[in-house]
TrEMBL record:
Top-rank taxon, per record: Bacteria
Ranges of residues in domain Major facilitator superfamily (MFS) profile: 24-408
Keyword hit for Cytoplasm: no
SUPFAM superfamilies registered for this protein in UniProt: MFS general substrate transporter
Name the record gives this protein: MFS transporter
Naturally occurring in which organism (per UniProt): Deinococcus puniceus
Record membrane topology: Multi-pass membrane protein
Coiled-coil ranges from the UniProt annotation: none
Species classification: Bacteria, Thermotogati, Deinococcota, Deinococci, Deinococcales
Cellular component terms (Gene Ontology): plasma membrane
């Protein structure tokens, strides 16, 4: 029977300890499955179509870009629809659509077909992304949300480690098999959430209210609008593990350096994210914790400019990872706190703008800065520039969140 849960924060007396419920455990497990399924097949697309079939790398880049653009664009609206009909049906529909999209990729033999399959996969992601965050918020008490989002992030990082390992094994069997496996993972996620996630009934809407009213409210929220805008700077920095940091690692230690690089970053998140967040929660309020985490990321990137050996770079990656693993749970917690009752999905959807814009700028500017530094014989230029972006972002976050209550 439906439990009648709403998307508003729980207001009863705080529980003495955080003991994940069946719904919370289901969401944690599904996050592992989603990240694992995604990273099982996405890295193989380039290998299969470029190295295996001889397609132009630009064609595959177009495919991956279209998927990300589709997902991030739809995520903005997916959150608003979750406020209208509840997050569960959207998450379930998104899982089924992504199952079809990834499965279809395995049968793609032409660029138009692969593009269509990637769009379908992007639509699935856009439907479940913000609604999943809204569901996490709805089933978790306010004082436990930071920990819950930290566990969600740990599960995602574990999936990011496991997926490529399984994908590498399946690559020997064939890309079609790998794509079908990736699709079946989302089918399993569908089954888990169908059994564990309660139906969440949105608050009653006024007659004639639009499903996009939540986005309008988020846009008009001065504090949240500034928060989302400033976070673009952080997401510009967070993409550098895939761009500038990877390029430096390869320059110092060759192509094989990418394995230790990503393994270290994801492994640290799996092992340390939750205990680190618990430690920080006991000593630092959420807002200063977010600002401090961004400063740590900025300092790590600046220090990378002076790393002349691969172990030195990895030491900087440790610092970088400590910062990034604190940003996600604190940013998600603050988004949930800023959202008014019944508008949590819309706020999470609107916040996807910062990831889309910042991530796109980061992918472009990271490579441009590295090329410019090499051309001018100024190897520290990209790293000092990125550090400056981080310092400005940290200052911007202090400014953007000054309208929140001191306890937040």
């Amino acid at each position: 029977m439906p439990c009648g849960c709403t998307l508003s924060p729980v207001t009863s007396a705080p529980a003495p300890a955080f003991r994940p419920s069946a719904a919370q455990l289901g969401l944690i497990g599904v996050t592992f499955l989603m990240w694992g399924g995604f990273f099982l097949v996405i890295p193989l697309i380039t290998v299969h179509f470029v190295d295996g079939l001889g397609w132009a790398a630009a064609s595959v880049g177009l495919v991956l870009g279209v998927r990300q653009l589709t997902q991030q664009g739809l995520t903005v609206f997916g959150g608003a629809w979750a406020d209208r009909i509840g997050p569960k049906p959207l998450i379930l529909a998104g899982c089924l659509i992504r199952t079809l999209g990834f499965g279809w990729m395995g049968f793609a033999e032409t660029l138009p077909v692969l593009l269509a399959a990637s769009v379908l996969a992007g639509i699935g992601g856009g439907l479940f992304d913000a609604p999943k965050s809204a569901a996490i918020t709805a089933v978790t008490r306010d004082e436990h949300r930071g920990r819950m989002f930290s566990l969600i992030s740990m599960a995602g990082n574990l999936g990011m480690v496991t997926g490529p390992l399984l994908g590498a094994w399946l690559a020997g069997v064939g890309f079609r098999t790998a794509a079908l496996w990736a699709g079946s993972v989302y089918l399993l996620a569908f089954a888990v959430l169908a059994l564990t996630l309660p139906r969440m009934t949105p608050p009653a809407r006024a007659a004639g209210a639009s499903s996009l009213d939540g986005l309008r409210i988020a846009l008009q929220d001065r504090v949240f609008r500034r928060f989302t805008l400033v976070l673009c700077g952080y997401f510009l920095l967070s993409t550098q593990l895939n761009v500038a940091v990877t390029l430096k690692a390869v320059a110092l230690a060759g192509p094989a350096a990418t394995g230790p690089l990503y393994g270290l970053s994801a492994g640290l998140a799996v092992l340390l994210q939750y205990p680190l967040l618990r430690l920080v929660e006991r000593h630092i309020p959420t807002r200063p914790a977010l600002v401090t985490a961004v400063l740590v990321v900025a300092a790590a990137l600046g220090l990378m400019g002076f790393a002349v050996t691969f172990p030195q770079l990895l030491a900087c990656v440790v610092l970088y990872s400590l910062g990034t693993m604190l940003v996600y749970p604190t940013q998600q917690t603050l988004t949930a706190r800023l959202a008014p009752e019944g508008r949590v999905g819309s706020y999470f959807g609107f916040s996807a703008i910062s990831l889309g814009v910042g991530g796109a700028l980061g992918n472009f500017l990271g490579g441009l800065l590295v090329d410019t530094g090499a051309r001018l014989n100024l190897p520290t230029l990209p790293w000092l520039t990125l550090m400056a972006v981080g310092l400005v972002t940290a200052a911007g976050l202090r400014w953007a969140l000054r309208g929140m209550g001191e306890e937040k």
